[in-house]
């Protein structure tokens, strides 16, 4: 049992090469060597899987990280994103303190792909291809695999890597199995308790005379979490020429998030040579958010610790946003002698619904004097006490939105493999075809209510909409706005009379993509070496339909664009055993990712602003981003040390996409502003992944229960952006957005037969969030260094009952974004500490 605890600790904290030491021990004491071949390096956390790890790593060609179900459960990972943040080279982009999107080797989430049992998952958000992984509960999965080397049998759609979600099956365990877990969480800042319950059940059945021919596996999860966020931000509204701060805002968030997940998986194995299977997934993420805001707009740019005139806006935003992701895969695998044939049909659908949300209910009041600010990151407002009186504020405007986004992905694929055995080597020839259709639909209706006095409304004071004083941990906040009273005001009014036809039309579009793909590859394995070589072909056809608006004529016209693209994606992946304990790896691969839907959207807005011609539009004709990748690494295993590995990687990226102003360039000579997205010059990213594990041995006391683990990834990148300045083309170099120079994990664990303790730290250095002004790096927004510290404990009463405890964000780490330099706040948030107590009952 002690080895089992060490195994999950290693696998969960160290990623790709972390389980070799324990696998060696398991092989020496429990089973003979296992004659199985794989194309990837695998890290596994269960006892049975550990027994296979050394042989699998010998046969590996590419580089893959794996997190198993047991690891996710023991470390209190609520979502897929939480489970992935400890893997080398991966880091998390957070929303309200929770992990949402995953970056791989310094590349932004939209440059990576997510699949479920081989089917590409649809993304619920309107402008993105990146899948929000906090939508999917980790309890529904058997494992998560991150492919960093892209072999030809992996569908194109990423530069950094592919995240493959593997569902559990009844054949993962012997006979009947069930597990029930209940957790009770507590958020210190919100003083809220958060229940969670999850369970899995599986069993295999005889069919006719065949034992264990049919299997059923069911998993379910429900988590209800309430918390608050304290925020103060400027949004980058600094004037560095005046200089001074133009605007700042206090925000108080009250959030409730409900995650519901279900999975049903069926397997039928009528013979030793035939498998039939169905994989299903349903996940719902309901996010209810109330945001109270104090927006201070200074009359003139303000220096710190000075005061002057300002307009204050008391603002309410209230919405419930529900994201759903569903997927199913129906397939069969037939093994016919030396041939293996796999035929699958898959489908995924995702949507995001935000019905009738208050996008902003604003109450305004002008002050002649007394307003300023002090501090650096956690800015404090200097204000007279009258700022917190309700009587002086008058209702100015209410914005309502009704939005819905849906994405559908359907595919069918055929893979055929042939094993050719020779006395000194083996070759597996593999080929396949895949046809997929993807459709993104975005709809939004925007309604603007204003000029209330002209509508006969007499109750315009904030006093009439008072919703109580707002709880806010950074400073005094004052009165809030009641959402219920705002809705009472709007209910008798005809909503359609206030529809903003221009904004609603521009925000709506449809994009369809048809992709035909095929590949050929050979996997050649000798006694101490392996070579995977081949190429993938992908042909895209895209149809984009949106709207164009010209405010000079007041006309709406359809904006339709068609695009096609074809590309070969070759790859060469190798590994060589330098000795029984040392392995060298090398890979040359090609990646491709299509631009995001926000960048491709076929929306066009043209206006004449007092003689200045301005436009803003998407670019459906953007080329895909491609990369030529090099991976080179070495790993060494030792009984006492554990494992050391170093992996170098380099990516040469073509057609980098960024936002640009085309005014003055060919075709836009008459424009004063023409903002869109364009393909830029080449970009590159390179880095080094280091992984180290050490288990103390030989002390014959409590020190032998200690295990240390760390992984570090150092990354650098560069891209070039350009613009036209008085007829002269200018340019500057920037790091790739979302790329941290350093990511790191460190963990120390203490293990006995029944007790497991773990203290872990997760670090990522600053990274570029977005360009505030393409021409001026002083306005670039950067997320600051961030380090979180977590603690977990588990105690086994027996083989069936265990309790667990977890404490997250022990240091109450804040989230901080700055403008150009750290002294200039763009956003500061605090989330507080969270604690979880859990009980698990298992029957093997």
UniProtKB/TrEMBL annotation:
It is a multi-pass membrane protein. Residues 361-810 form the TonB-dependent receptor-like beta-barrel domain. Residues 1-23 form the signal peptide. SUPFAM superfamilies: Porins. This is TonB-dependent receptor. Residues 57-161 form the TonB-dependent receptor plug domain. PANTHER family: PLUG DOMAIN-CONTAINING PROTEIN, TONB-DEPENDENT RECEPTOR-LIKE BETA-BARREL DOMAIN-CONTAINING PROTEIN. Belongs to the TonB-dependent receptor family. InterPro entries: Beta-barrel_TonB (IPR000531), Beta-barrel_TonB_sf (IPR036942), Plug_dom (IPR012910), Plug_dom_sf (IPR037066), TonB-dep_rcpt-like (IPR039426), TonB_rcpt_bac (IPR010104). Pfam families: Plug, TonB_dep_Rec_b-barrel. Its main location: membrane. It comes from the Bacteria. It is found in: Cell outer membrane. One of its GO terms (cellular component) is cell outer membrane. Keywords: Cell outer membrane, Membrane, Receptor, Signal, TonB box, Transmembrane, Transmembrane beta strand, Transport.
